[in-house]
Amino acid sequence: VQLQASGGGLVQAGGSLRLSCAASGRTFSNYAMGWFRQAPGKEREFLAVISPSGRPSYAGSMKGRFTASRDNTKNTVYLQMNSLKPEDTAVYYCAATDMIYPDYANTARYKHWGQGTQVTVSS
Predict the structure, then answer these.
(1) Beta strand extents in the chain (DSSP E only)
(2) What is the C-alpha to C-alpha distance for residues 103 and 114, in angstroms, rounded to an integer?
(3) In this structure, are residues 112 and 5 in contact, taking their beta carbons and an 8 Å threshold?
(4) What percent of the chain has pLDDT over 90?
(5) What is the Cα–Cα distance from 26 to 43, expressed in whole angstroms?
(6) In the structure, what pLDDT confidence band is assigned to residue 62 with cuts at 50, 70 and 90?
(7) Beta partners for 112?
(8) How far apart are CA 112 and CA 21, in angstroms?
(9) d(CA 12, CA 26)
(10) In the structure, what pLDDT confidence band is assigned to residue 102 with cuts at 50, 70 and 90?
(11) Which of 61, 58, 59 has the alpha carbon at shortest distance from 69?
């Protein structure tokens, strides 16, 4: 499956953005979809994963501000980000895996990655 992330941009602190990740392929509904981000000089950080059936799980620090969802009819997953802070500035990535794991926070769980979309939050 090929992934294309979009929706990033420049936003003021306190604002919102919705990222999208469009997937190619007819088996999208079989994939768990993860969201990660990577700030300059830092490791890639897990944000959320959404199961094939649409059940999301979040990194503890993201719960409440970020909401993951998916539309299997459109082969697209979304990450709604609210109350953005300057420290949310990063490149945001979507990723896909068709394997079942006890957790999905590790980048090694994912076979496929999107190209990333830049989110910049100004203070």
Answers:
(1) 3-6, 9-12, 17-23, 32-38, 45-50, 56-58, 66-71, 76-81, 90-97, 112-113, 117-122
(2) 20
(3) no
(4) 87
(5) 32
(6) confident
(7) 96
(8) 12
(9) 37
(10) confident
(11) 58
